[in-house]
Design brief:
Blueprint (H helix, E strand, L loop, with lengths): L7 H12 L15 H9 L5 E6 L6 H16 L3 E5 L2 H14 L10 E4 L4 E3 L4 E5 L3 H4 L6 E5 L6 H7 L6 E2 L5 E2 L2 E6 L7 H11 L4 E4 L7 E4 L2 E4 L6
Parallel strand pairs: 1-9, 1-10, 2-5, 2-6, 6-9
Antiparallel strand pairs: 3-4, 4-5, 7-8, 11-12
Helix pairs in contact: 2-3, 3-4
Length: about 230
Amino acid sequence: LDRAPRTDEELWWLTQALWDHRIPRTKVCPDHDAPFDAFATAYFEREPMVLIHGSRGLAGKSRTLSILGLTKAAIKGADVNILGGSLNQSNNIHQTMRDAWDSKNAPKYMVQDDSMTLIKLKNGAKIRPLTASQKTVRGPHPPFLLLDEIDEMDQTILDAALGQPMPQKNWMGEVIDAQTTMSSTWQYPDKTFSNMYRRFQDENLPIFTWCLAATITGVITQRGEIPIEEVTT
């Protein structure tokens, strides 16, 4: 790349070109948000924290987080920590990132080390999946933190993890601002996600909601399987 994307439009096309992943830009429900709006807000660090709420298995939250972390590492040279509600959840996101390198136009030449515990790129960026424990969340301080299924985490562990992100200089000497993106299905009525939801409301931080991810959600019709946003009455 001659330069990193500077606009939402450039970023949207970049994720398709590199990772063969089309992030939905349309809303399925009028009062919900388009997944790409959350993606762009986090990538460009427009807000220090982003909260995503979506349905399990249909919203594409984990895949969106995977592509977000990979793009930040590959394009910006940012270190990325991945913290899931369980080690399995963290590894699932990490595995999705590793699978993205199989895309036709993926910059495979950038990969210096690729294992289940670390992806290290030649631009200096490191991607690490972590377990939800007090020991690991008090470890490295990358500029970018991905938290998936936060409702499965203890509040004390989440609070400790939020202290991880710190600004970092990349290989070009540019400062990458600290940013945290977290998601959940909100499966418990009064646990970690509920607490974060209230905090985001109090601090006027962005909350993005989508129940289904348009474009990646297929619906079987008489015309065959089509994207959900193309379904009409």
